[in-house]
């Protein structure tokens, strides 16, 4: 199976069920309905060909496979979260880059001079060059 064929949200559900030791508590944590979480669990079970959780009294216990994969699943979820929250955005005020523009000779003087003027006021570390 390839990652492009997998709904990665299933792993969020897996982690919630594992942490909460039950579907109902996972539903509350995820703010999802019980049928939605149960459907996700059914898809996970099919994907791994394992029940993943077995009911014991009023909680569900992870199977050996679930216990084996939980650490990797959690590390991956943390990695995705980090990617979403700590990815830097382009900030012209702090950027130290060089941009090269390909321009026709008759456009170069008016465009480059205006561009350089604006860059100098808003992005002092950016360099601009023009090629013909």
Written description of the protein model:
The protein is an alpha+beta fold. The chain folds into 2 domains: 3-86, Winged helix-like DNA-binding domain superfamily/Winged helix DNA-binding domain (Arc Repressor Mutant, subunit A), CATH 1.10.10; 98-131, no CATH class. Helices cover 55% and strands 14% of the residues. It has 5 helices and 4 strands. Strands 1-2 form a two-stranded antiparallel ribbon. It has a two-stranded parallel sheet with strand order 3-4. Helix 5 (108-122) links the parallel strand 3 (98-102) and strand 4. The longest helix is centred in the middle third of the chain and has 23 residues, at 64-86. The protein is rod-shaped and about 80 Å long. The two termini are 49 Å apart. The model has no long low-confidence stretch (mean pLDDT 90).
**CATH topology descriptor of the largest domain:** Arc Repressor Mutant, subunit A
Quaternary structure of the protein: single chain
User: Treating each run of at least 4 consecutive H or I residues as one helix, how many helices?
Assistant: 5
CATH superfamily of the largest domain: Winged helix-like DNA-binding domain superfamily/Winged helix DNA-binding domain
Q: Work out the radius of gyration.
A: 26 Å
Average pLDDT: 90
N- to C-terminal separation? 49 Å
The string of secondary-structure elements, in order, is HHHEEHEHE
CATH class of the largest domain: Mainly Alpha
Main sheet overview? 2 strands, antiparallel
Number of strands: 4
Instruction: Return the CATH architecture of the largest domain.
Output: Orthogonal Bundle
- Taken together, the total number of domains comes to 2
Biggest sheet: strands side by side, in what order?
1-2
Q: How would you classify the helix and strand content by structural class? A: alpha+beta
- Poorly predicted sequence stretches spanning 5 or more consecutive residues: none
Rough outline:
rod-shaped
């Amino acid at each position: 199976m390839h990652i492009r064929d997998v709904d990665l949200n299933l792993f969020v559900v897996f982690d919630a069920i594992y942490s909460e030791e039950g579907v109902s508590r996972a539903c509350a944590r995820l703010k999802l309905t019980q049928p939605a979480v149960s459907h996700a669990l059914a898809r996970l079970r099919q994907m791994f060909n394992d029940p993943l959780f077995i009911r014991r009294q009023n909680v569900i216990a992870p199977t050996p496979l679930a216990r084996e994969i939980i650490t990797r699943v959690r590390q991956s979820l943390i990695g995705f979260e980090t990617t979403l929250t700590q990815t830097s955005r382009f900030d012209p005020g702090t950027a130290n880059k060089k941009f090269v523009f390909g321009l026709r000779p008759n456009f170069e003087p008016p465009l480059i001079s205006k561009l350089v003027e604006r860059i100098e006021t808003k992005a002092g570390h950016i360099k601009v060059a023009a090629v013909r």
